[in-house]
């Protein structure tokens, strides 16, 4: 293994930000990009968001409802580190997409609104991180406003998210009395001046809290800080890098993203503590990042990044080896060799052709319908990265075409949208019309808009009385034949041809499962 490859891996950090909508994810992202020199001006990320709205018709849904549907990838440099930031959609209806994005990160940053504490979407996203043992660093935001007591927030996190908290910074007051944070990690005081949009320069090194300088700087709040820290020393868990990397402890920072306060301290700790790209599991074996062989998997397909070109970009996470422009790789699902000649790397405002890239990097491949979510590419060995599932849908609609002559377009559109993971598509074993399944109902709206805009298909939805689905498998051929005969009215094939049982209720499903003891009913399924 080459030294250069190891060096490149060591300086990479690939992470996603998780938060409930409005906690400040966009604002924080923007400040991180400012520090990375990826943007020059605050307001750029938001501006870019609204730009996209104006030019893309299906994204009007996002605009109308003030939500972020699409996620994107941003690369920037900070100190000697190369950082890949993966944006996740905040709305819970797109949680399947978020889940897949989180399969491509090595760690996560959780943003919490200090006035709200842990919110429902934070809980859901943390559940995903826990399932994958993803290390999480926490940023408590909006200290410039009145909020919950810091200890209360930590208790809330520990209770609701089942993760031990260890504060690495501690706020001094909040709202109007917010004076700054004491950095427990570096033993320095960072004083807050409202409205600073650049890094707060007023940092005072105070190794010993009994230092009278503290009283001069903070007045009566100096003793409050001393009391708080004394309390913490007795009550809080000491920081352990090992526990953080095992995802059983989260280091906590306090600040105010909009005032750019506490952000750089957090970023400094993040690059030092967060894990570099790690190993990945495949069906065959574990792949280490510093193997010479190139390997990677596609975790997301995004359409309409550039509405003028109706493009579809497949995002691939590099898991091992080095990517060089034009290299030939094996597309394992198709069993074909292809040349990766125009891969793209995404910066905050730009995209550029990439000449070389390393594990942890995300490259965008132009996709003309040959790449699906879950596809694996390597320079030879047959591998299949695992852990990129589809989840059983909870909402269903039947699609009825208004113009029967458009059935080919409808089929094409639905196949492509299913490959992107925008929606799940089922073809009933008996019956001609497609049934769509989704984890969140907004997926239906996006699908319909896109069928119209991109495939010129005019269709409507009809309700169907299904509420749940399971993929079915059975080793006993005879039993499975019997099952299929008896239940054919409730069976459908998904876009990849897997047989699925659609049920009107949990009760009905339970009943059928009992009746067909030898048949397996699966709640999630790996992409094949
Ligand atoms: P997102 O939905 O998580 O991306 O949240 P945004 O970054 O869009 O922020 C939501 C709202 O909170 C916006 O109005 C921001 O201006 C505001 N906000 C973000 N950070 C802070 C902060 O540190 N203090 C205060 N007072 N408001 C903030």
From TrEMBL:
GO cellular component: cytosol
Protein's UniProt keywords contain Cytoplasm: yes
Sequence ranges assigned to domain Tr-type G in this UniProt record: 10-278
Pfam families: EF-G_D2, GTP_EFTU, RF3_C
PROSITE patterns on file: G_TR_1, G_TR_2
Cellular localization per UniProt: Cytoplasm
Residues annotated to bind GTP: 19-26, 87-91, 141-144
Predominant place of localization: cytoplasm
Keyword Transcription regulation on entry: no
A biological-process GO annotation: regulation of translational termination
Keywords for the protein's UniProt record, in alphabetical order: Cytoplasm, GTP-binding, Nucleotide-binding, Protein biosynthesis
GO molecular function, one term: translation release factor activity, codon nonspecific
Family: Belongs to the TRAFAC class translation factor GTPase superfamily. Classic translation factor GTPase family. PrfC subfamily.
Function: Increases the formation of ribosomal termination complexes and stimulates activities of RF-1 and RF-2. It binds guanine nucleotides and has strong preference for UGA stop codons. It may interact directly with the ribosome. The stimulation of RF-1 and RF-2 is significantly reduced by GTP and GDP, but not by GMP.
NCBIfam families: prfC (TIGR00503), PRK00741.1 (NF001964), small_GTP (TIGR00231)
UniProt protein name: Peptide chain release factor 3
Natural source organism: Desulfuromusa kysingii
Gene: prfC
